[in-house]
Write a structure and sequence with these properties.
Length: 147
Amino acid sequence: MNNLVIQNQQSTMSSTQLAEMLGFDTKSSINKAIRKVFDDSRLESYSEKDARGYVIEYHLPELESKMFVAKHDIQYLEEITQYWINKDKQQLPDFNNPAVAARAWLMKLRQSWPRRKNLNLQPLKLRLLIASLSQLAINHLDRLQSY
């Protein structure tokens, strides 16, 4: 999508460029496919018309271009979907940095410690102990990182 045209201070992609990318045979077939995806009121500002008022070219902005390509190219749609699935996965800490690794370990310990049943402490005392130990360790790690 590096063949973008600037129209009205907005990057657009022409229906001819989309036809070449997606393998449409004729300009009328790509224009018909575009009209099936988007309603006329949305396309009015993106259309280039001849003297008779017939649309000869559409100039779709980035969002509409990507939506159209995603509808007609399953591989592109898969790439976009996979991107958002991977983006939503939790990022792992940098375990090469000892302070970051220790902080991650403490946070995990803080989450799992209340679920341990073999400790004979009352729940409130246990929570206070975990919170104070964790906070002390995090403060110490912050000081180490700042050196």
